[in-house]
Amino acid sequence: MIHLTSDAAIMFGLALVSAMLSCGLLLSWKVLGGVRHALIWAIAYGIGAVQWFVIGAYNSFWPFTSAAFIGATWAGGIVAILLCVGFRERVGMPRRPRLMIAAAAISGLLIAVPYLINGAAFTLAIPQFMRVIFLPVAALTLVGFGRRATMVEIVTAAILLAFAGFSGFVGWMRLIDCGCETNSGRAVLLIGLPVLFTGAGLTNILLLASDLAQQLRRTARVDPLTEALNRRGFDETAERALAQARRRERPMSVLLFDLDHFKAINDAFSHADGDRVLHAVAQCVRRESRAEDAFGRLGGEEFALLLDNMAPLAAVAMAERIRAAIGMLSVLPDGCRVTASFGVAPVFSNQTLADSLRHADLALYRAKEAGRDRTILYAEPDVARPGEGAVSRTNRRQGVAADA
Q1: Which helix (H) or strand (E) holds 334?
Q2: How does pLDDT run across 317-351, given as a tens digit for each residue?
Q3: CA 226 → CA 177, 235, 278, distances in Å?
Q4: CATH of 6-221, one of 2.60.40, 3.10.450, 1.20.1070, 1.20.120
Q5: Contacts for 149-156 with beta carbons within 8 Å, 24 or more apart?
Q6: Domain made up of 231-403: CATH architecture
Q7: N or C: which end of the chain has fewer CB within 10 A?
């Protein structure tokens, strides 16, 4: 005869929640292009669904066999291990499968052997202590190791730590006198477990949603071929950097360049070769520039680099270094050389980003007129502003640009 107790109802509810979380994570795995951590979490909550269903069935109509009890108890620890593996996978850390398999095997022995010699209290405590070990590791993976955590990651880490603390308390109660069997102990267990287990699962879904949103934002701001910022991404990043530089009264320069005779490269070789050239040039610029510099592909073969806390003459030196590095690239067949022309302009505090880019474009035009494969520094025709790295007054009077 089936007798559905309150304990069994909660276990069946947890089984249903786990199954729904598993399905949601499987869907996220498909939507996000097969990210492995979503699949690992889906498997974890699928195992959790089976575990809670078996425990609910035991509490209502199905007397446990030894194998069923050991398996259901062991599954609780396996879920904790898989959750930890998924979090490590998400941030690109080593999965350490041998360590995880060893932990699962040891926990299985610690569950099975005491139960078979009539040590049920110790057996029931093992999965709780496995959560105490693995959930804090997962939380540290989210917010530690020098990473800048998002709000969703911080909330997830807090819930994982709360779940670990709760599990440690329950495990301790199991050990001392099986206190979870008292009315107060059962109340703590049956209230805290569903809330924390469901909360941990929902934060997994939120993390994946956050990852998807970040991926969409990146797609909208990054050029897929060169992985440099596209025009929209460059403008947004540059405007923020420019506002910060104005507040701190730091000099800035903008560097604009494009590849010489790029159309001829596509015509003489192929568009695939042209794409390889663009990708190689972008990689070269990253190596020669700083991490804090905003680097973007403005269109076609034209690129821009916003140099924070750098005066124009120092920017010219960087442009020359990048130009020389591009000239040494071996990308095209038959030893054909890739060259680029550069225009450099200071970013004055009373000018917009568009003004500075226009000035750099004028200097770039002069570089092409002068024979290409060179760097030209923009020079304003008016009197030099003190402290802003302007070029000499003589050069200013000679036109809109001066050969660097």
Answers
A1: none
A2: 999 999 999 999 988 887 788 999 999 999 987 88
A3: 63, 17, 6
A4: 1.20.1070
A5: 150/210, 152/203, 152/206, 152/207, 152/210, 153/207, 153/210, 155/203, 155/206, 156/200, 156/203, 156/204, 156/206, 156/207
A6: 2-Layer Sandwich (3.30)
A7: N
Is 400's pLDDT higher than 50?
A: no
* 378 three-state secondary structure: strand
Whether 341 contacts 367, CB under 8 Å: yes
| pLDDT for the residue numbered 403 | 42
5, 55, 60, 68 from 16: Cα distances, Å: 17, 13, 16, 19
The count of other CB atoms within 10 Å of the CB of residue 109 is 11
Task: Work out whether strand 340-346 and strand 375-378 pair parallel, antiparallel, or are unpaired.
Answer: parallel
CB 134 within 8 A of CB 82: no
Q: 8 to each of 11, 52, 163, 215, 262, how far by Cα in Å?
A: 5, 9, 21, 41, 71
Using alpha carbons only, what angle is made at residue 349 by residues 348 and 352, rounded to the nearest 5 degrees?
Answer: 80
294 in Cβ contact with 306 (< 8 Å): yes
Nearest CA to 345 out of 389, 399, 290 is that of 389
Model-wide pTM > 0.85: no
| Res. 250: pLDDT tops 70 | yes
Q: Are 100 and 85 in contact (CB under 8 A)?
A: yes
pLDDT tens for 193-247 read 888 989 999 999 999 988 888 888 888 889 989 999 999 999 999 998 888 888 8
At 268, the amino acid letter reads A
Instruction: Give one DSSP letter per residue of 45-72, joined into a string.
Output: HHHHHHHHHHHHHHHHT-PPPHHHHHHH
What pLDDT, in 10s, does the model give residues 124-135?
Answer: 778 888 889 899
List the single range of 139-143, 173-177, 231-235, 368-372 with lowest mean pLDDT. 173-177
Average confidence score pLDDT of the chain: 83
Sorted by where each begins, the domain ranges of the chain are: 6-221, 231-403
Residue 397: its pLDDT value, please?
30
